[in-house]
Write a structure and sequence with these properties.
It is built from 15 helices and 15 strands. With about 400 residues, it is of the alpha/beta class. The protein folds into 3 domains: about 90 residues, 2-Layer Sandwich (Alpha-Beta Plaits); about 90 residues, ACT domain (Alpha-Beta Plaits, 2-Layer Sandwich), CATH 3.30.70; about 210 residues, HAD superfamily/HAD-like (Rossmann fold, 3-Layer(aba) Sandwich). Strands 12-11-10-9-13-14-15 form a 7-stranded mixed β-sheet, with helices on both faces. The protein has a 4-stranded antiparallel β-sheet with strand order 2-3-1-4. It has a 4-stranded antiparallel β-sheet with strand order 6-7-5-8, with helices on one face. The termini are far apart.
């Protein structure tokens, strides 16, 4: 006969509380079967599932714990756990686990209420809720900058497709991003991030900037937008747009390259990933001329993009070599993975346009970033409220573990 008791302790956190309580139990030879502790705003909650030694009586042990808790100004509660209940809990450890990451400028009770009800409706249990973002000031710098909560889930979802659709609906309706991932070994061992460039790594479409210098800005911009929505063949649309650039002097490209607007969080993302050994790739339907600027600035390891033909100091209106379209992006991703000895599951791919979808689908973590509706619908994950550095939260990184905050 095993006597199992759940001991729950709460109160103001102070140094040495856990040591005092477990030290007392150690004197009785108590076995700890499970333990969890959290501190929110200096308030401690400690739970211990303990087994009373065979032949021992629980009453004096629990009485001593009660006295010690009183001495430490803590509240304590004892709940006996039946062997059948305990055995059922042990058997449940083989169930799949998932991570739901909640991202926004701020997180409300309504967000958590809606999400917790949704996961319960799909037969998932919440194990742990953890804040990954830093402590948020009420006013001044840093207020409403970014907020992230990670929810660890356990169970077999009754309708995984329906759950993902419901999460997307909540995301659209509540100005929050929700990433739902299987909690497996690959999530904790990503090793490469592949980024689209235009409207992802930088906040512009370089070809639109070039076209504006030629007086064809509106026309080219309309074609670009249609291509990104997936309404036009990318190769054909690129050739049509590049043809409008014929005669543009190279100095215009230099001027644009000197002032490329970086996307929020881009430098912070790359600095932190490189610090922990990630490889960085730019795989873009844009142009190598601008990609080279970013490669040097950010320390990018791989750069694949389209090369504009330049003769006599001006653009010819043609692209040199093979066009980097959706299929080529996916092929490049496979080639880099093979070169680096990586599983595709270890790769993160990020993009905003329809020509990124094949790459996003191939990667273990594919993220539609501030993307068109068709791309959001087709990608595994989507981010629309925060900057690129919020991807670090999807890897389980905390603000306190990050460096190089770019504001």
């Amino acid at each position: 006969m095993h006597e199992i008791i759940l001991v729950t302790v709460s109160g103001q956190d102070r140094k040495g509380l856990t040591s005092s309580l477990t030290g007392l139990l150690a004197g009785y030879g108590v076995r700890i079967l499970d333990i969890g502790q959290s501190v929110i705003h200096n308030h401690l909650t400690l739970g211990m599932l303990i087994e009373i030694p065979q032949g021992a009586v629980s009453e004096p042990i629990l009485k001593d714990v009660l006295y010690k808790a009183y001495e430490l100004e803590l509240s304590v509660k004892f709940d006996p756990i039946g062997e059948d209940h305990y055995s059922e809990w042990v058997r449940a450890q083989g169930k799949p686990r998932y991570i739901l990451t909640v991202l926004g400028r701020f997180i409300t009770a309504d967000h958590i209420s809606r999400l917790s009800q949704l996961v319960a409706d799909h037969d998932l249990n919440i194990d742990i809720i953890t804040r990954l973002s830093g402590r948020t000031p009420l006013n001044g710098p840093g207020a409403a900058k970014r907020a992230c909560v990670e929810i660890s889930l356990r169970g077999d979802p009754s309708d995984l497709v329906g759950l993902r659709q419901s999460l997307m609906d909540i995301s659209h309706g509540m100005d929050v991003d929700l990433a739902f991932q299987e909690d497996n070994v690959f999530r904790r061992n990503r090793r490469l991030v592949a980024l689209d460039m235009d409207s992802t790594l930088i906040q512009t479409e370089a070809i639109d900037e070039l076209a504006a210098r030629c007086g064809a800005g509106a026309e080219v911009r309309a074609v670009t937008e249609a291509a990104m929505r997936g309404e036009l063949d990318f190769k054909e649309s690129l050739r049509r747009r590049v043809a409008k650039l014929k005669g543009l002097p190279e100095c215009a490209m230099q001027e644009i390259a000197a002032s490329l607007p970086m996307t929020e969080g881009a430098e912070r993302l790359i600095a932190n990933l490189k610090r922990v050994g990630y490889k960085i790739a730019i795989i873009s339907g844009g142009f190598t001329y601008f990609g080279e600027v970013l490669r040097r600035k950010l320390g990018v390891d791989y750069l694949y993009a389209n090369e504009l033909e330049i003769e006599n100091g001006a653009l010819t209106g043609r692209v040199k070599g093979e066009v980097v379209d959706a299929e080529r992006k996916a092929q490049i991703l496979r080639e880099i993975a093979e070169r680096e000895g990586l599983s595709l599951q270890q790769i993160i791919a990020v993009g905003d346009g329809a020509n990124d979808l094949a790459m996003l689908s191939l990667a273990g973590l594919g993220i539609a970033f501030h993307a068109k509706p068709k791309v959001k619908q087709g990608a595994k994950q989507s981010i629309s409220t925060l900057g690129l550095d919020s991807i670090l939260y999807l890897l389980g990184m905390r603000d306190r573990e990050m460096v190089a905050d770019d504001g």
